């Protein structure tokens, strides 16, 4: 089985490999394809974030000629109770079959929001707050804000597994 991920981000690669290994018994080859999301660097609505994931999945599958295309796009979302962050995950299969999931959504603290209001994307802000370099390539904001209890790839793995549900339980998705 060939899976094309529309990203070269290590946490996303790890999440996709882990999720597909759990989901399927056959060998899985994950290829990474650097494709544009077609949305802003820091999506600010669920609709925009989903669209970025869909675009990445579509373009990656097409470019790699894969059985599945996977797009993972992180974004922020305003809510009555604050500003939250999560990723949307799209898995595209044969015959335009689609699965959609999300990672865990978490509230952003005021200190992070103040820095983001200056225009930096969350990865840059988290590096400033945590005194790290390229934290988004490791544990991400999940790791920083959970004091290491949850990592970016673990949250994304759950989202990928959620997006795979229509491919795993066909009897419920007709």
UniProtKB/TrEMBL annotation:
Pinpoint the Non-canonical purine NTP phosphatase/PRRC1 domain residues: 6-168
A GO biological process of this protein is: thiamine metabolic process
Q: Which domain of life is it from?
A: Bacteria
Question: What PANTHER family has UniProt attached to this entry?
Answer: NON-CANONICAL PURINE NTP PHOSPHATASE_PRRC1 DOMAIN-CONTAINING PROTEIN (PTHR34699:SF2), PTHR34699
Pfam families found in the cross-reference section: NTPase_I-T
For this chain, the family text in UniProt reads: Belongs to the YjjX NTPase family.
Entry EC number(s): 3.6.1.73
- Which NCBIfam families does the record cross-reference, listed alphabetically? inosine/xanthosine triphosphatase (TIGR00258)
Please report the name of this protein according to its UniProt entry. Answer: Probable inosine/xanthosine triphosphatase
Q: What is the UniProt remark on how the cofactor binds and its stoichiometry?
A: Binds 1 divalent metal cation per subunit; can use either Mg(2+) or Mn(2+).
This chain's source organism reads Candidatus Woykebacteria bacterium RBG_13_40_15
């Amino acid at each position: 089985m060939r899976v094309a991920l529309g990203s070269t981000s290590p946490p996303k690669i790890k999440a996709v490999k882990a999720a597909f290994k759990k989901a399927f018994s056959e060998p899985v080859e994950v290829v990474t394809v650097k494709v544009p999301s077609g949305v802003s660097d820091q999506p600010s609505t669920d609709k925009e974030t989903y669209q970025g994931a869909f675009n990445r999945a579509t373009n990656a599958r097409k470019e790699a000629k894969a059985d599945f295309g996977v797009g993972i796009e992180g974004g922020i979302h305003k809510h009555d109770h604050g500003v939250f962050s999560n990723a949307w995950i799209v898995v595209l299969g044969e015959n335009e079959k689609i699965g959609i999931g999300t990672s865990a959504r978490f509230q952003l603290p005021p200190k992070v929001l103040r820095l983001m209001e200056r225009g930096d994307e969350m990865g840059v802000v988290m590096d400033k707050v945590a005194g790290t370099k390229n934290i988004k390539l490791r544990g991400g904001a999940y790791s920083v804000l959970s004091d290491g209890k949850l990592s970016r790839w673990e949250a994304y793995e759950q989202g990928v597994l959620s997006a795979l549900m229509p491919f795993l339980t066909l009897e419920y998705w007709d």
